[in-house]
């Protein structure tokens, strides 16, 4: 069974998280410049088995597509073109992940300067997206 990779896609940077091989735990992997996302993902999947990529889908408070989907969708379409066909891409609601990431940083005791690190926020956001995705799948499989 391959890992699940999550991407918190942004204009400047993308946060990346991945599961363990048993798909139980999500961990932050990196934050990469958006222009280097395809290269990073290709290197990662060459080194680790990946079956699925989950991309945070930016929506507004009502669940409607947000303005940022205008640049995110074409970027993910370019990624899809370079991926092997057996690796699926799914979109998953990412509402409030940045807020939750900041709260996690506060709860974790990170100092003010560390909390200003947008790259760290992106990586934590990707981890939250992946954890939420895993929990939704677990819940859905128990029904």
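-> sequence recovered:
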């Amino acid at each position: 069974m391959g890992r699940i990779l999550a991407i918190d896609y942004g204009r400047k940077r993308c946060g990346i998280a991945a599961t363990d091989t048993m798909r139980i735990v999500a961990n932050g992997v990196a934050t990469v410049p958006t222009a280097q996302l395809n290269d990073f993902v290709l290197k990662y999947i060459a080194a680790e088995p990946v079956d699925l990529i989950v991309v945070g889908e930016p929506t507004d408070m009502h669940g409607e597509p947000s303005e940022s989907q205008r640049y995110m969708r074409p970027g993910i379409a370019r990624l899809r073109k370079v991926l092997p066909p057996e690796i699926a891409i799914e979109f998953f609601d990412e509402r409030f992940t940045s807020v939750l990431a900041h709260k996690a940083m506060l709860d974790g005791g990170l100092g003010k300067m560390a909390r200003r690190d947008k790259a760290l926020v992106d990586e934590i956001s990707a981890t939250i997206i992946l954890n939420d995705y895993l929990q939704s799948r677990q819940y859905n499989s128990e029904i």
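The beta strands are 3-8, 13-19, 26-33, 50-57, 88-93.
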